């Protein structure tokens, strides 16, 4: 069983539980996705970044 730290969307509390202990709100996993050499969407991400800097 893996335990991942989670953060509440509404009250910004960090926890390991499935629901927020203080407000019973939704939680998101705070870790970034794993890096992959075979990045499927890298081309689109770089293009979006380039367009954002052109403005």
TrEMBL record:
<comment type="function">
    <text>Involved in ribosome biogenesis; more specifically in 18S rRNA pseudouridylation and in cleavage of pre-rRNA.</text>
</comment>
<dbReference type="GO" id="GO:0006364">
    <property type="term" value="P:rRNA processing"/>
</dbReference>
<dbReference type="GO" id="GO:1990904">
    <property type="term" value="C:ribonucleoprotein complex"/>
</dbReference>
<comment type="similarity">
    <text>Belongs to the NOP10 family.</text>
</comment>
<dbReference type="InterPro" id="IPR007264">
    <property type="entry name" value="H/ACA_rnp_Nop10"/>
</dbReference>
<protein>
    <recommendedName>
        <fullName>Ribosome biogenesis protein Nop10</fullName>
    </recommendedName>
</protein>
<keyword id="KW-0690">Ribosome biogenesis</keyword>
<dbReference type="Pfam" id="PF04135">
    <property type="entry name" value="Nop10p"/>
</dbReference>
<dbReference type="InterPro" id="IPR036756">
    <property type="entry name" value="H/ACA_rnp_Nop10_sf"/>
</dbReference>
<keyword id="KW-0698">rRNA processing</keyword>
<keyword id="KW-0687">Ribonucleoprotein</keyword>
<dbReference type="GO" id="GO:0030515">
    <property type="term" value="F:snoRNA binding"/>
</dbReference>
<dbReference type="InterPro" id="IPR023532">
    <property type="entry name" value="Nop10_arc-typ"/>
</dbReference>
<dbReference type="GO" id="GO:0001522">
    <property type="term" value="P:pseudouridine synthesis"/>
</dbReference>
């Amino acid at each position: 069983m893996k335990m991942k730290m989670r953060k509440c969307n509404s009250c910004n509390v960090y926890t390991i539980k499935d629901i927020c202990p203080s407000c019973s709100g939704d939680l998101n996993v705070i870790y970034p996705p794993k890096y992959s050499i075979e990045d499927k969407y890298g081309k689109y991400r770089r293009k979006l970044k380039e367009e954002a800097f052109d403005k």
